Amino acid sequence: MNLNNKFFSRLIWIVSAVVLLVVITLKLVPPPQNKPSFIYLLPHLIGGINATCSVLLVLSLIFIKNKNIQAHKITNVITFMLSAVFLIFYILFHLYEKDTKFGDVDHNGILSAAELAAVGVGRYIYFFILITHIILAIVVLPLILISFLRGFNMQVESHKKIVRWAYPIWLYVAVSGVVVYLMISPYYNF
């Protein structure tokens, strides 16, 4: 590994740690009093970005399987940029708005026995998908960044080795993000 790769490898781990710390901090700090009106559009945009990334990731795989390296690169750069926008929107939304409770039909922030009974096993399915989505989102960020570093440096064999893990995880995170959005959106109180 040359000096340039060492620098970028360290940067990847620093960026990954900072993102994780920012997301954890969002859960601990109270939201600001004044909320911008656009904040309530963000969950819908986030869901759309995740859906778009899911499609682009599949297209990227098709392009590389057909040896269309240029289309593969362009698709991955677009997907990466959309994922960065997603992260900015996610942080911005969760700065102002705390978590929505799955099943909270009356939007009072408390799940009554009737609300819990109404959602039933769907609540467990939702939390399973949400928890795996969160854990794998944490894991995949450095994998994506490492795969980009190796891909752009044309370290094809080492790129393939990391992508073997990064790709399915990234695709799961993108698709499960859409599923989480579709499952929680009926309970938004805005």
Task: Please render the helix and strand layout as text.
Blueprint: H1 3-28, H2 42-65, H3 69-96, H4 113-119, H5 122-152, H6 156-184
Helix pairs in contact: 1-5, 2-3, 2-6, 5-6
User: How can the largest sheet be summarized?
Assistant: none
- Give the helix tally: 6
The succession of helices and strands, N to C, reads: HHHHHH
Q: Which blocks of ≥5 consecutive residues have pLDDT under 50?
A: none
> Helix fraction?
over 70%
Whole-angstrom Rg: 19 Å
Oligomer: single chain
> Could you tell me how far the N terminus lies from the C terminus, measured between alpha carbons in angstroms?
51 Å
Beta-strand content: under 5%
Strand segment tally: 0
Q: Average pLDDT across residues?
A: 92
Shape: globular
Alpha-beta content class: mainly alpha
Q: Can you describe this structure?
A:
The protein has six helices and no strands. It is mainly alpha-helical and 190 residues long. The relative contact order is 0.14. It is globular, with a radius of gyration of 19 Å. The chain has helices at 3-28, 42-65, 69-96, 113-119, 122-152, 156-184. Helix content is 76%, strand content 0%.
Summarize this structure briefly.
By secondary structure, this protein is mainly α. The protein contains 6 helices and no strands.
List keywords for this structure.
single chain; mainly alpha; globular
